[in-house]
Each structure stands twice: as C-alpha cells, then as structure tokens.
Amino acid sequence: MSNSIFNAVHHIAIIASDYQRSKHFYSEILGLKIIREIYREARDSYKLDLQINAQTQIELFSFPNPPTRPSTPESCGLRHLAFAVADLDQAIAHLATYNVECETVRIDECTGKRFTFFRDPDNLPLELYQQ
Predict the structure, then answer these.
(1) Bridge partners of 118?
(2) What is the set of domains in the chain, with CATH numbers?
(3) Is the pTM of this model over 0.85?
(4) First to last CA, the chain
(5) Are 80 and 125 in contact, with CB atoms under 8 Å apart?
(6) What is the pLDDT of residues 103-122, one digit of tens each?
(7) How many CB atoms lie under 10 A from the CB of residue 62?
(8) Is the CB of residue 82 less than 8 Å from the CB of residue 52?
(9) Mean pLDDT (whole number) for 4-16
(10) CB 43 within 8 A of CB 25
C-alpha cells in the first residue's frame, strides 16, 4: 500500500498564446467538455475549465503577452501531458481529420504499450498512450 497523500491529478494548467485557437483545439478537436469559462477582468484574462474525466481537468488560461516556452520538450520542468486512449489508431485518425499530425507510433520499452506525440497550437507536446 502506498503512503501517498494524493488521490488523483485534479487539473493541468496551460497558458495559451491565442486563447480562441487553443479553446477550439482542446474543446472541438480533442473533444474535452467545457465545464465553465470565466473572464477575469482584473487580469484581462480568461480561464476555461475542460473535463478530461470525472476527476481530471485542464485549466486553459489567457494572459496578455505570456512568456514563451524556454525550449523543446527536453527543457527543465513539465515535459509533456499524456492522454490515455482505448484505441490509439482511432485517436490518431480523429486528429488527422483536423490536420493534426502525430509522430510515428512507438512502443514503450518498459510496458510494451503503443504511444505517439502531437502538438497543441502553442507547440506543447501532448501524448496519446494506448491503455
């Protein structure tokens, strides 16, 4: 039994350079359900809560003039966000209908599971991982 105090990941926060473009990508292309959208006047920014499943969300933020990402996925900090999928080929085909390119499918050498990477509108690395 684990001694972790954590139950699950509640949310992942992403700052978008183009809020409307990223809102479309995450809600329409990836199909995440919009829970709520709030305009925060004091910050001149939006906060969009998107549902991944019953306990995990993405918080999509807009901010005036956000700083750019330091470098590619190998920069220090969060490396990428992985979405578990039941059918990897179906998920890749769905993304292709929106002209979202995925890398060549690879096999996780530790688990034997198939996975691939794609990018969001801000070039953030996202992964599809076959359950």
Answers:
(1) 126
(2) 1-65 (3.10.180.10), 79-131 (3.10.180.10)
(3) no
(4) 23
(5) yes
(6) 999 999 889 999 999 999 98
(7) 21
(8) no
(9) 82
(10) no
| C-alpha–C-alpha distance, residues 21 and 130, integer Å | 27
Between the alpha carbon of residue 67 and those of residues 59, 84, 107, the distances in Å are 18, 29, 34
| Average of per-residue pLDDT across 57-69 | 85
CA distances (Å), origin 25, targets 16, 18, 33, 117: 11, 11, 12, 15
Find the mean pLDDT for residues 51-77: 80
In one-letter notation, the amino acid at residue 51 is Q
Q: How many other β-carbons are positioned within 10 Å of the β-carbon of residue 48?
A: 23
d(CA 69, CA 128): 21
**Does residue 51 contact residue 57 with C-beta atoms inside 8 Å?**
yes
Q: What is the pLDDT of residue 10?
A: 85
Query: What band does 35 get if pLDDT is binned at 50, 70 and 90?
Result: very high
How far apart are the C-alpha atoms of 82 and 62, rounded to whole Å? 22
